[in-house]
Amino acid sequence: MDKAELDERFHQATQHLRAGSLDVAESICRDILHSRPDDYGANHLLALCLERDGRFPEAASAYLRTILLSPGNPAPYLHLGNLCVTMHQPKDAMSAYDQALAIRPQWSGALVAKARLLSALHRVPEALVTFRQAVIAAPTDVQLLTEFGLAAQATGELDEALAALQQAAGLAPENGLVLSNLGNHLQQYMGRPQEALPIHQRAVSIAPDNAVIRYNHALTSLSLGLFDDGWRDYEWRWRARPGGLRQRVFAQPQWDGVDLNDRIILLHAEQGYGDTIQFLRFVERVRCRGGRVVLQVRPALLPLVRDFPGVERVVTPEQDTGHIDTHLPLLSLPHVLGLTREIDLTMEEPYLKANPRKVKEWRDRMAEMAEGFRIGIVWAGDPKHGGDHLRSIPLPLMAGELSRVAGGISLFSLQKFESHESGPVNCDTSGLVDLSSRLVDFSDTAAAIAALDLVITVDTAVAHLAGALGKPVWVLLPFASDWRWQQGRDDSPWYPSMRLFRQSRRGDWRAVLEDVVTALAT
User: Fold this and answer.
1) Could you give the domains of the chain?
2) Nearest residue to 96 via CA among 55, 136, 66, 137
3) Which parts are the TPR repeats (predicted)?
4) Does residue 422 register a pLDDT over 50?
5) Phi-psi region of 327 (alpha: psi -120 to 50; beta: other; left: phi over 0)
6) Partner residues linked to 213 by β-bridges
7) Quick check: helix, strand or coil at residue 475?
């Protein structure tokens, strides 16, 4: 074949590759290479055919051949790196990306690929540095700006994240998901839900069937007390968070709110312990709709709620539910029940009760341990929670500030998880009485709380437990708090006995604790 014929055959191979005719494209490439084995284009096209056909080791060999043929070309290094990612070979992928960037340092394609790999390897600070370089090289790439913004968000560079997400939204004002990312950042990380709401509303109008957009709209609406829209769109949570939430499947239909007429309904818990405790308040309303309630909770909650009012039977996910006629996830109750007013959320009386025998035992035990006004504290949540670094407080800071209170107080640790910063808890050096070894399940924690005078905690299940028991509880919240605590208020419609202390500056726990100390002194 002469050059003109080879070029025509290469063009044909390219067209077949684009059309998905991989076998034809591969055959043409091999014909070309038979006549011209060192043809870079044909070797590269063959590598692409092999990769798309799932023949990864052969494709890798073909890419290495293209590198030998054109060692100063960064493109085959990038393709080889992407293939190594697909083959779960991150070390080789990183090496290929670095070689591409050694040839062409400001190439946005290689910078983005490297940054994504670093993010996937949870090397987010390094990814952020690489994303910054990529954005300089490609400042109008909306997808790149979005990924950069989310990486900055994950590392706590919130102002930088906001700027990137705003820039992306400005470049793509008709992209609902890009708008939703911006609104989500404003609400969840910047504490500005009023600004986020119209952005979310615009995103919903553009893409009303996008689950992530609807879910983000729900969180902002709920944080602003817009419960009608909030509970409705909160039902999109299953499709919006497939990696974090698993929707239960039952043979029976999901309850839609109609009168139950003595039918048996399974109410099953979801998400964290605090969510379950918070939404138990609505169980009685289901009984009033004619339902015979079977409640399903995780094992640690079972002893506490075994005799919950209005419930015929309490089981764990591992136990047989017995016969049921219908079911509903616990956090879907407000929507199905049509609870759209703040007054619908409030319980005038405590709806959980501690075991009286256990409470007496705890009071006797605490009297032997310490004297004075008894305060239980929790300074950190579950480290596996994605936002725990924002809501947790270093133990030395919290214990140190509370120890400044004049007068007789005793501090008791209700902490069950190790914090990120403190590691294993050493209560002896913090002036705390450690109760953790005796807190086997939530019935033990409830009894201990009932024996205390006050609970001071970050946003964890203990906050909900103390509130549900009617115990005075002070909750310490980050600058941008969870939707359920709303914004700009120091009380909560969920729990009459709760008082909220909020960061006025992002990350400033010392000022929050100073407010707590002042409140304790008055």
Assistant:
1) 264-344 (3.40.50), 356-521 (3.40.50.2000)
2) 66
3) 74-107, 142-175
4) no
5) beta
6) none
7) strand
